[in-house]
Amino acid sequence: MDGLLAPFRSAGVKSSRRNFLKASLAAGGGLLLTARIHGIAKAAVSGEAGPREIALNAYVRVAPDGSVTVTAKNPECGQGIKVMLPMLIAEELDVSWDKVRIEQAGYDPKYPAQVAGGSQATPVNWLPMRRVGAAGRQMLIQAAATTWGVQASECDTTPGVVRHQASGHTLSYGELAEKAAAVKVPDLEKVPLKDPKTFRIVGQPMRNVDGEKIVTGQPLFGIDVTVPGMLYAVFQKCDVHGGKLVSSNVEAIRKLPGVKAAFEVKGGTDLRGLLDGVAVVADSWWRANRARQQLQITWDEGDITGQNSADFARKAAELAKGAPSSTVRKNGDPAGALAKSAKVVEAAYHYPFLSHIDLEPQNCTASFVNGKVEIWAPTQNPAPGSKLVASTLGIPESAIKINMIRCGGGFGRRLSNDYMVEAAWISKEAGAPVKLVWTREDDMRHDLYRPAGYHFFKGGLDGAGKLIAFTDHFVTFSQDGAVANSANLEPTEFPARLVANLELGTSMMPLRAPTGPLRAPRSNGLGFAFQSFLDELAHASGKDPVAFALDLLGEPRVLPDPPGPRATPGFHTGRMRGVIELAAEKSGWGKTKLPKGTGMGLAYYYSHLGYFAEVVQATMAANGLIQLDKVWIAGDIGSQIINPLNAENQAQGAALDGLGTAIGHGLTIEKGKIVQGNFDTVLPLRMRQSPPVEVHFRVTDFPPTGLGEPALPPSLPALGNAIFAATGQRIRSLPFKDQKLNASA
Amino acid sequence: MPYIIQVNGKQHTADVESETPLLWVLRDTLNLKGTKFGCGAAQCGACTVHLGGQATRSCQIPVSVLGASNVTTIEAIGETPVGKRVQQAWLELDVAQCGYCQSGQIMSATALLTKIPNPTDQDINQAMNGNLCRCATYTRIRAAIKRAAELARA
To answer: Is residue B69 located within the same domain as residue B99?
Structure first.
């Protein structure tokens, strides 16, 4: 196994001479540790092209009373980062978790990696945050050793206390904190780390730090922010994305009850920035939104030819008759191998546009005064927001202060900051602090959509049922001539590298609506299409889908990624085998006798460095409704589940999110506009539909990786495959609700 | 015009239009931010409050129809024994992810447990189906309701 592990050893943060750890006296006494550690993060989900150099900063204060304050620098959207990062520091510092206080940082250029996205927080922070804690512990030991006139090597720690083994002397961290601030800081690269077997905090169930505020309804989210003198704003944009404002009855709106200001906004052409529209500012949000309903606006919608979901489907089918316009990957002779195949399976798959539907609608509070603006934003990604506000308002970034507020869901939507620049602009124009709150309809109709996709597959099996040929013509979308954000297909898409004759190619259709990353970007759609089609091939081969998958994966080995910006440490066939076998074992795959009309479906997917296999059991009821009976998740995210309490919750939520998406989400575009606007037509999963979900982790020797996303992609195809097993009906288009299927309990 | 309303056992005056939904009176007039806005159409349940003990979507209740009915919000639900146990169970099981829907979930769960102290899965499905959780924490919401019922028996 060691040889196999080698490529993964470098997955952590690379060393750099610019790393430093600084110790100083904290304000109010005690030890303040400031760490800055440079490293490389893979392209996050924000659609950036390449790896970014990032700097991880940590601030740890040990107070004279022994309490430890750790600054949580990343935005919190419900993934538990606010707890997880401090756990890593506290573990190595060796303090009791109940002595640890966590403070949410604001946006500050001194923390350049304040992004919640791409399941990056764990792989990027795992070693650096532990090293910061370990260095602090070493300094506290040194301070004690100096006090006692003994060698540091003769001392050890119990939580919050340094002890001299021979004499039994003890000093608390609080007593040592100030003295430790004067100790020479150790080299972060060389500081010894704990043996994971001795962890007391990492690996223990730790609760959400904001839990108490959440269950008692205390103000916590962006939408809850109140600042003195604040007014309330709504902003009407053109429902055809990028449409221009021609004229409006804004003068009449100004006379309506409670309205303090109403004005036209001339925006730019960047669909992620400030766009044309009409802002209404009033003394309550209800009045602002009510006044808005009286708006009459003439828009120049521009060219909307062909911007209809029905046209996209027709065009995709036409394009599929020809060759792909570009080749993503080609191995061997796919056409020749298909011609020689004993059995050829062809199928067309489709998935729709999706909105993120964060339950907290987009909102932002801004106060523009004397050329400076303070912002309170539920954002996953404040840094680009700061730049956007600066360039749009024509002010330097130094005149912008951003407070990061807990997000009521992110799912990738809050990686963009359009709502932030709108609030800042409206505050400036209105001459007052404003809270901008979008309606649900605004939120659904002005999103950065998960792009729809059309896949035209062919697969060839030889006489023994082995997959010898595989082709996909993926018809996707372009924007301004380039592939639309999150609409790309990579040459590593499974089963690439495992089929001798394989071709992945794409053709594109121009799209007006903006697109962007949604939880498990690309994988959330590709997983459905590829894993459903592979299940078709398994059934065509006459093999059980689990056996077919294990045959396809073959011996445990690493399939390296081609070099490039999206290269991961490669795909490990053994890790995928491991989770498939675990999911099969836990679900009783092939062993449980299922009643007629009930079936199990398997799907497996590698994304965001995590390996997941899921089995869904579903029943087709007599009334044509799908009943979700149970879900089994098997995941491999490395050597350590840092917070098992949260890990289980994340995995369950991700799989159920996928099932809800498969059944009930889907947007259609007509004349350039999103048709759906609320939860009467977009149907997220509800309690009645929600099945029990078992989560099993396979602990392996690989570095720990993230969990916000990778448990999602397999659940959609696992459900489709279960429906096939239950009924013999293969559903190749999402959402299932549009295929005369629905879910009930 | 000024409306006199009863919220969390206290009398408040809200000088708003008659159509103003209770949701916005709570949030913007009375500064009780725990009741959430999610859809404005009684589709998501984030705005759930108790109106005379019944779980009610406050985005659909104009202030003018309240009269003397008592409104209970998440901020005061912990003052009832059932609400207190529900909050405790939610914390014990670490239900929340983003947390945005949870005040509405807790209000619906408390109404359910007040009426049916030991609910079946079917009872839970029925009472909780109007409350969306975008993070899909349904597994833990269900478990927490059962835990709160258990706490009452203890």
So the answer is: no
Torsion angle of C-alpha atoms A574, A692, B147, A661, degrees rounded to 10: 100
Angle at the Cα of B65 from the Cα atoms of B59 and B67, rounded to 5 degrees: 120
* Least CB–CB distance from B24: residue in A77, A285, A656: A285
Q: Quick check: B135 and A406 CB within 8 A?
A: no
CB nearest to B97's CB, from A437, A653, A688: A653
- The verdict on B117 and B66 lying in the same domain is no
Task: Count structural domains, chain B.
Answer: 2
List, for residues A496-544, the tens digit of each pLDDT value.
Answer: 999 999 999 999 999 999 999 999 999 999 999 999 999 999 999 999 9
What number of CA atoms fall less than 13 Å from residue A54's CA on the CB side?
25
| Same domain flag for B11 and B71 | yes
Please say whether the dihedral angle defined by the alpha carbons of residues A311, A314, A316 and A322, taken in this order, is positive or negative.
negative
Look up the CATH number of the domain holding residue B16.
3.10.20.30
Residue with tokens 């540091």: A152
Task: State whether B70 and B108 are in the same domain.
Answer: no
Provide the pLDDT for residue A70.
86
Q: With cut-offs at 50, 70 and 90, classify the pLDDT of residue A742.
A: low
Nearest CA in chain A to B34: A217
Q: With an 8 Å Cβ cutoff, are B73 and A217 in contact?
A: yes
Contact A439 B40 (CB under 8 A): yes
pLDDT band at residue A120 under the 50/70/90 scheme: confident
| Structural domain span for residue B138 | 78-153
Surface of B (11-50) touching A: CB under 8 A:
16-17, 19-21, 24, 27-29, 31-41, 43-44, 46
Domains of chain A, earliest start first: 8-212 (3.30.365.10), 222-302+362-437 (3.30.365.10), 309-354+449-744 (3.30.365.10)
pLDDT beyond 80 at A598: yes
Alpha-carbon distance values, A386 to A157, A408, A424, A484, B142 (Å): 43, 21, 10, 24, 41
Domain boundary among the residues B36, B51, B76 is at B76
CB A105 within 8 A of CB A113: no
Q: For residue B19, count CB atoms less than 10 angstroms from its CB and return exposed for 0-12, middle for 13-18, buried for 19 or more.
A: exposed
> Nearest residue of B to residue A630 by CA position?
B139
pLDDT tens per residue across span A185-236: 898 889 999 999 999 999 999 998 899 999 999 999 999 999 999 999 999 9
Q: Is the ipTM of this complex over 0.95?
A: yes
Task: Report the gap between the CA of A745 and the closest CA in chain B (Å).
Answer: 8
Residues B146 and B82 reside in one and the same domain: yes
The answer to whether B138 faces chain A, any CB pair under 8 Å, is yes
**Are B6 and B61 contained in the same domain?**
yes
Q: Please state, in angstroms and rounded to a whole number, the distance separating the CA atoms of residues A186 and A135.
A: 6
pLDDT at residue A15, as a whole number: 40
For residue B17, give the nearest of A257, A645, A654 by CB distance: A257
Same domain, B39 and B27: yes
Structure letter (DSSP) for residue A667 = B
Instruction: Report the residue of chain B nearest A75, measured CA to CA.
Output: B98
A700-716: pLDDT as tens digits: 999 999 998 999 999 99
Domain end, chosen from B29, B55, B76, is at: B76
Interface contact B125, partner A, CB < 8 A: yes
What are the chain B neighbours of A649 within 8 Å (beta carbons)?
94-95, 97, 137, 140
Interface mutation target, options B48, B59, B100, B141, chain A, most CBs of A under 10 Å: B100
Helices and strands, number each (H, E), in chain B: 6, 5
CATH code for the domain in which residue B144 is found = 1.10.150.120
| Residue B82 and residue B149 share a domain | yes
